[in-house]
Automatic annotation (TrEMBL):
This is Modification methylase EcoRI. It comes from Alistipes indistinctus YIT 12060. GO terms for biological process: methylation. The lineage of its organism: Bacteria, Pseudomonadati, Bacteroidota, Bacteroidia, Bacteroidales. GO terms for molecular function: methyltransferase activity; nucleic acid binding. InterPro entries: DNA_methylase_N6_adenine_CS, EcoRI-like_methylase.
Length: 335
């Protein structure tokens, strides 16, 4: 029964087109360049991609030799195009394999790309797609946001390195937060600002400011979309510069948590030893050498005291989502 429900959810998402967001090449280039040493002699899997318009497949196939890849694999859900550079429709799921340039022109030509039929529908949870996952060293893609919990759980189960896009709110999903708290998942580099994703022409966007047409293609803007990874970067170990000092008046304590509220990441006090509640945007500045993440205000399983459920309150009013942190490098006031 559980499997049927999962499949129904995936099909509903597919039919409503809610998960069909295609990442721009510029966003991929800006992020992947920070991880280039990791890719040498590795098998890369893009397992949530339509190869007709997948900029992930485009990026890694055209940069195959520069990155020193061993193999590139891309899977797509059924009813996608089995012929990479044509408009012929196909009702079967496929996966593509590319092992590098063969004719010396440094271009991934169609005859150099293997197109292999899948027996199933290309669902990343299917056994044949899991077998492809096992072959891979690094997973890079934009998975369906509606299935992010299952997707990240699978990557962690099979101990894969990854660089994937997801909504910022996933930080406090119980399936994700436990790995963040234990320093097994963190955010990538380019997480600020609004990202524009290509969508199909029939995708309904009701807010004019969130859509645009460029070169005949339709784009949808999404704020709060971030990169999740488990590959180290230098940025992750840069200290956050703190300048404010604690005062009871400026930093009130929660009604139901033994912690102070810090409404802006830039206002984290340099001299406070206790637990602080900060916005989830803090994770973009998080240095595990400088701070410890001890919990969040989204569920008893994330409460450092194991007491409270959902929400933290100030004077009876619920605050926004918060991470609970502790400063490892408290600077005492010498006065």
């Amino acid at each position: 029964m559980g499997r049927k429900i999962l499949n129904q959810n995936l099909n509903n998402a597919k039919s409503s087109k809610k998960d069909e967001f295609y990442t721009q090449l510029s966003d991929i280039e800006k992020e992947v360049r920070h991880y280039k040493p990791y890719f040498k002699d590795k098998v890369v899997l893009c397992n949530c991609d339509d190869p007709r318009i997948s900029n992930f497949f485009h990026y890694f196939s055209y940069n195959f030799e520069q990155l020193g890849l061993k193999k590139l694999i891309a899977t797509c859900y059924k009813n996608k195009n089995a012929e990479l550079f044509t408009d012929n429709q196909c009702e079967e799921a496929i996966y593509l394999e590319y092992t590098g340039d063969k004719n010396g022109d440094n271009i991934p030509n169609p005859e150099e790309i293997g197109v292999i039929s899948l027996k199933g529908d290309g669902d990343f949870r299917s056994q044949e797609c899991i077998e492809l996952l096992k072959q891979a060293d690094i997973i890079v893609t934009n998975p369906p946001f509606s299935l992010f919990r299952e997707y990240i759980t699978q990557l962690m189960k099979y101990n894969k390195s990854f660089l994937i896009l997801g909504h910022q709110n996933a930080i406090i999903y119980k399936e994700v937060f436990k790995f963040i708290k234990d320093n097994k998942i963190w955010l990538g580099i380019n997480n600020g600002g609004t990202k524009w994703f290509e969508v199909k022409d029939h995708y309904d966007i009701t807010t004019e400011s969130r859509k645009k047409i460029e070169n005949g293609k339709k784009y949808f803007s999404m704020g709060s979309v971030v990169w999740y990874t488990n590959m180290e970067t230098a940025k992750r170990h840069e200290d956050l510069i703190l300048y404010k000092r604690y005062s009871e008046k400026e930093y009130p304590k929660y009604d139901n948590y033994d912690a102070i509220d810090v409404s802006k990441v830039s206002d984290i006090p340099v001299d406070y030893e206790g637990i602080m509640g900060v916005p989830i945007t803090f994770l973009d500045k998080y240095n595990p050498d400088q701070f410890e993440i001890v919990g969040s205000n989204r569920g008893i399983d994330q409460d450092p005291n194991g007491i409270y459920g959902r929400g933290s309150y100030l004077n009876g009013k619920e605050t926004f989502k918060r991470l609970f942190i502790r400063n490892k490098k408290v600077q005492k006031n010498e006065n």
